[in-house]
Amino acid sequence: MADVKVDKTLDVRGEVCPVPDVETKRALKKMESGQVLEVLIDYPLSKERIPANVKKEGHEVLAIEEIGNSEWRILIRKK
Amino acid sequence: MGVFTGLITGILFGIVLQRGRLCFNSAIRDLKLFKDNYLWKAVMLGIAIETLLFPLMAQAGWIHLNPKPFMPVGDIIGGLLFGFGMVLAGGCASGVTYRTGEGLTTAWLAAIFYGLFATASKFGFLKPVVKFLRGPVYKIDSPGGIYAKGKIGPTIATSLHINPWIPAIIFAAILLWYVFGTKTSERGGKGFNWITTGILAALVGGLAYYTSSHFGGRNYPLGITGGWISIFKTFTGGKLSWEGAEVLGIVIGAFLSALATKEFKIRMPRNPMAYVQVIVGGALLGIGAVTASGCNIGNFFSGVPHLAWGSLLASLFFVLGNWIMAYWMYGRR
Q: Which residue blocks in chain B are alpha helix, DSSP H?
């Protein structure tokens, strides 16, 4: 997944629930269709909830990669 | 034996909470904010099972049901304060407790202030304020049978003078129809699915009722607030209670579970203002829980299955308080 061009990065590591989810939603709203959002996250609940909820909104989840101990990188393409 | 069984029960509950990501703050808020019912269904399934399990255990003579008192004012005010608090603290009583074990430093502060303010509300400087906020407290003479002897809180069954099995079966049937008959949100990942979480949480609830009443001198299923109070009292020479050991067990169980699944990490927010927010939230959790005679575990997860009026009313206001604060914090734009 390294070849995907990331248009915006959102680092929500350490944030209180549900800030990662809300910030992701707000960031996607501001982006153009087709652009890719990278979310850096370390909170297990949101790591599972964000992909489920952005898919429901019609966005595409390109990847969920483990980048460290309890740290993940979620790539989302805006619809 | 009390401390030992409390600790074991807590460790099991901590594993279920961590693997199931069972936070009532998320469960309640997600329904409104993200139109997501995943965790809410785990809660509702657990409550449906406990609604049948507790009277069954009582029928078998293993336990005696001990519903919480009815406090029309305290349940509403305490419920609202607790509902506001869980949003600000980034978790309910069980949420901040299990995430303490996952290494979230914001949860540590929320849990500490929750425990401190619950202790102050129960025994300290906030006691007169909380006594005023609680208003009148109603208990009735127990009708006996599957209920504990002496004074108990009124339930749907005691008010209608009917066999407690009738409302229990109707209530459980409605919940089961809802959880299995309606569409559930999708969720991937390493966590337990909602059905596993709901079933296991209810079984731990049954185990808690048995061990706490037989070995802990405390006739009630799972709780959190009294446990944190007990832990804080040990700092000034108090003895750790069954519930205190249970809360300690939750932290240990969640820690071990997070460690085993590589989900443990010391996490800190970049904006330190988050600490201020969770301290205020934690304090509200403590005051709210003591005012309403229980948190989201004591009143919602353990009290609603008794169909106690007090727990039903407090839980309704946990939900309303959560929705109001979640809308104000996150929903407006």
A: 2-20, 24-33, 38-59, 72-89, 93-102, 105-122, 127-134, 156-160, 165-181, 194-215, 225-234, 242-260, 273-291, 309-326
Instruction: Examine the predicted complex and report whether its ipTM is higher than 0.85.
Output: yes
- Tens digit of each residue's pLDDT (9 = 90 or more) over B162-206: 999 999 999 999 999 999 999 999 898 888 999 999 999 999 999
Residue B99 three-state SS: helix
Would you tell me which residues 7-66 of chain A have a C-beta closer than 8 angstroms to some C-beta of chain B? Answer: 11, 13-19, 21-22, 26, 42-45, 47-49, 51-53, 55-56
Q: Token digits for B237?
A: 């020479």
Q: Which of B197, B185, B188 is nearest to B35 (CA)?
A: B185
DSSP-assigned letters across all residues of B306-322: GTBHHHHHHHHHHHHHH
Helix or strand run (H / E) with residue A68: strand A60-68
Distance in angstroms (rounded) separating the CA atoms of residues B224 and B226:
6
Domain boundaries, chain B: 2-331
Cross-chain residue pair B36–A14, CB shorter than 8 Å:
no
DSSP state of B270: S
Report how far residue B87's alpha carbon sits from residue A63's, in angstroms, rounded to the nearest whole number: 30
Contact B313, B307 (CB under 8 A): no
Cβ burial, residue B165 (10 Å; 0-12/13-18/19+): middle
